[in-house]
Amino acid sequence: MAFICRFAPSPTGPLHIGGVRTALFNWLLAKKNKGKFYLRIEDTDKERSKEEFKKQIIQSLSWVGVKYDDNEFIQSKNINKHQEVAKELLEKGFAYKCYCSEEEIKEQKDKCKKQGIPYIYNRKWRDPKNIQIPKDIKPVIRFKSKISGNSTIKDLVQGDINVSNSIIEDFVILRQDESPTYQLCATVDDHTMKVSHVIRGDDHKINTFKQKQIYEAMKWNIPKFAHIPLIHSEKGSKLSKRDKSSTIDDYVKIGILPDALRNYLLRLGWAYKDKEIFTLEESIQLFDLKGVGKSPSKLDMSRILSLNEHYIKNMDEKILFEFLKKYAQSFKKAISSSKEESIMKSINFLKNKAKTLDDIYQNSQYILNDDIKIVPEDIKLLDANAKKIITEFLEEFKNMKKINKEILEKLINNLIGKHKTNFKGVGQPLRIALIGCRFGPGIYNIILSLTKDEVVKRISKIN
Hints:
mainly alpha; 3-stranded parallel sheet; 3-stranded antiparallel sheet; 20 helices; elongated
């Protein structure tokens, strides 16, 4: 059997992190089974669908490494087929015209609300007798759902799911203006695209039962379904677009790496033995739906940062530097070409303990900014003795023809002995003079990351 999976977001808002995980799972299942993975943009909600959100969806998937096959499938371009199927269902007796007014539907909903029961359309026009068709109301077309018995879905994650058909209303498939609804569009499109597996959030379970009835009525092959648990916020509630860290953009802005976030999303609700770190190839090779859990997963920012730190620490430093450059250009101040060499040769220690690209960028500030301002609380540490040490260091440093760690160590040890102090007694005043703060990288790393002229210029400003 050919494996064909799809991801079908609606461009009515930025792509949610849960949607990214759904796309990832579909993509991995398709790639593992040498199948196809398609992107379908469900843009039939014309009022809320925006081109900017479509672009954000495509960019988000690309950023995290999920690449779809062929061009994206635009749902609105298949509207004629949707309408054609709706009319075929009507002709075959699987659907009917409903002439209820908006006021009638609202009245039914209000009545159910007062009784504390879920609203289900009362099927007034399913088998009308002695009812005059109103002339001033254009009908909607409703699907004739099964009234008695039960329906079962053999879910690849949840196992067998069984519901009473009585809870599935006669849902609308074509509106008054003949625009198709989600249930019809999704079913027709999945059939048209020959989708074999549908992986989506478990909030879609009731939709699956509705769509299954359309498949059966049309005598189409029914795809296999897998409903994955939702992602909850750190507080334990269902994650919404209003939450911080709910979209890819929220992570890009703080400097999370694509591989780290993809690895995190892979492990969010899925496991393979006790393995934590997965390369892209391992993700494809090892992924299967048996490893997906049945309970909701909770977003854990500390875990994301920990994974990101791992990738920063182990990534090729040239690649890391390119990520840093792009990050700075997008969200900070671009790294000037005159500073690139200094940053690149220093990235090995600038990334030390960094959890994000922003951390590396902040650690690089003393290199990027020529005008160093000393932190007010550290100025008092530059007493007369500290300034004397700095002055003596500068005199020796100016005369050095070759500068390396060994030579610097010798100079600093001489100053320690001469002034009967310790390493901190010499290193701390120098660090304050060079980067404006007593906290930061090791003093040897700082000196070697700057040009000789820059070191001289900064230390000379300390009177």
